[in-house]
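Dataset card, provenance and construction

Sequences and ligand SMILES were collected as paired inputs. For each pair, a complete structure of the chain with the small molecule in place was predicted and serialized as structure tokens. The example below shows a pair involving magnesium ion. Curators did not alter the output after generation; any descriptive sentences attached to a record were derived from the structure itself.
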Amino acid sequence: MNELTDQNLPEADQQLPFSAILLDMDGVLFHGMNPIDGAMGFMEAIANIPHAFITNNPIRLPQAVADKLEHIGFKRPLEKLIVTAGEATAAWLAQQKPGYRFFAVGAEGLHQSLSQYGNEDPENADFVVVGEGEGIDYAAITTGINLIIKKGARLISTNPDTSVDAVYQGKRVIMPGGGALVAPFVAATGQQPVTIGKPEPLLFEIAMQVLGVKASDCLMVGDRPDTDIIGAQKLGIKTALVRTGRFAPGAVLPLSMQKPDWDVNSLSELQCLFSW
Ligand SMILES: [Mg+2]
């Protein structure tokens, strides 16, 4: 706790410097199907503060994310409070081209998210959407690059993470993220993708819209400086980095990064800090 002395601590009788909270999930609330120490208590403590969940992970639909949170032992959140990169991508595509045609490379949840407002069309897709999870192979890359080069489809990446921390077959491992999986398409076509997830603003904006709050009202809690923290800072959202995911306590943050407003080892520490 020594590190905290120079941080922006609120006086006991002062109002919190924010009125809503945006939460990343992987590395903040859970690893795989295991809750992170302190996460349950933290969620109970902030139950009456408006909050939403934003994740760059496009693999699960909001309903499946809510199921997962409930299964782990958290109170089940309303699905509209869960903003995934897959959902945000679908919303963005619908705005660009109502009734869009798409070719998706990624997990089943991505196909389902995109099918809400558009139709799969590997022959004449308007968009080639690359997300995380299984689904990429030689045939998918071939179809995708032909759509882009020959038919003028736009390349979309659900999220820029080059690697993600995951649990695979019971082990904590590093897996390729959306930013890595889109790379072969970029190399083969020379086209840069439109990227949807954090640190781009769309997920934050959708979450704030759902909560009916503005950037200066919010605190973003995340474990990744490159996406959670930088993305929030760009919008003027206050930030708390928890060192339960990508960065362990004491690990040095990238020099290029502006410091988060709060840098804590765990959610319990953040909870203490605000006397929740
Ligand atoms: Mg995370």
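Derived descriptions for this record:
The first helix runs from residue 39 to 45.
The CA atoms of residues 2 and 264 lie 11 Å apart.
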